[in-house]
Amino acid sequence: MKPVVVRNVAIGQGRPKICVPIVAAGEEGILSAAENMGEIPVDIVEWRADWYEDALKTEKVIRLAGLLREKLGEKPFLFTFRTAREGGEKALPPEEYEALNIAVVQSGYVDLLDVELMSGDEAVSRMMDEAHRKQVRVICSSHDFFKTPSREEMLGRLRKMQQLGADILKLAVMPQSKRDVLALLGVTLEMSEEAVDHPVVTMSMASLGMVSRLVGESFGSAISFGAVGQRSAPGQPGARELAEVLEMIHRNLE
Fold first, then answer.
1. Among 71, 98, 219, 221, which residue's CB has the most CB atoms within a 10 Å radius?
2. Which SS3 state, helix, strand or coil, does residue 23 take?
3. By the 8 A CB rule, do 190 and 155 touch?
4. Do residues 14 and 43 lie in contact, with contact meaning Cβ atoms separated by under 8 Å?
5. Pairwise CA distance, residues 22 & 250, whole Å
6. Higher pLDDT among residues 197 and 232, named by residue
7. End-to-end CA distance of the chain
8. Are 247 and 15 in contact (CB under 8 A)?
């Protein structure tokens, strides 16, 4: 797998990188969480802007992104507005979602942008093009909080992300059985071997899918999400515990 290098972090090389989301609602809580990132094992910091109380006011989002950039220093900064249809905290009309993401990448404050695959091919392409123009890497994502789609559907979504020009391909699904977890891991392995120029990030959610967040290095998933306090998705382990497990597995795979 060819890694995507963001600042000093090679995503897709070595152990899965740990991404910790900031999910506070108020500015004070958001900035406080950013200040604490130096005390925990984290490779990438994600701001889940849909949790922000003023997320629909673009000028406030941009201002706060600038403050976060200062707080995070050289840590890679991922901006994500997760829409309600994909499990996020707020609904946003498609044209406003696109405009917000484009404004954020044009600000120069972020290193990575999450773009939802289901935004439509043309909108996804416009957001990716602008992000790449500003040297921002794109994680194209798809989430299913109700089920695990068929193997063919999961592979189809990941391949579509690749075709549209994403730098990193992300898929999160909800398992209804242990076999669903195995199906997701099988798709991860297949796609990581097929899309050698694109790191793949997958997870099976909730407690049933917890194992998928831990064994990514064996199956080809390049990022695992860990929580500090409030979780942004069901089944996220604590960041410190996640780091211990990922490092143990990494050492024994060498």
1. 221
2. coil
3. yes
4. no
5. 26
6. 197
7. 16
8. yes
Tens-place pLDDT, residues 137-172 = 999 999 999 999 999 999 999 999 999 999 999 999
| pLDDT of amino acid 170 | 98
Kindly give the interhelix angle for 94-107 and 58-72, rounded to the nearest 10 degrees. 40
**Chain Cα centroid distance, residue 140:** 8
Residues known to be catalytic: 143, 170
3-state secondary structure of 18: strand
Structure tokens at 49: 């802007």
Per-residue pLDDT at 234 exceeds 90: no
pLDDT at 52: 98
Q: Which of 124, 202, 206, 201 is nearest to 168 (CA)?
A: 201
Helical segments of the chain, H only = 27-35, 58-72, 94-107, 121-133, 151-164, 178-194, 210-214, 216-219, 239-253
pLDDT of residue 231: 64
What single-letter amino acid sits at 92? Answer: L
For the four alpha carbons of 242, 156, 83 and 56, in that order, the dihedral sign comes to positive
The answer to whether the CB of 142 falls within 8 A of the CB of 157 is: yes
Whether the model pTM is above 0.90: yes
Q: What CA–CA distance (Å, rounded) separates 196 from 221?
A: 12
Query: pLDDT tens-digit profile of 93-138?
Result: 999 999 999 999 999 999 999 999 999 999 999 999 999 999 999 9
> Which residues, 6 or more positions from 103, have their beta carbon under 8 angstroms from its beta carbon?
58, 61, 62
Question: Encoding tokens for residue 105?
Answer: 């990448």
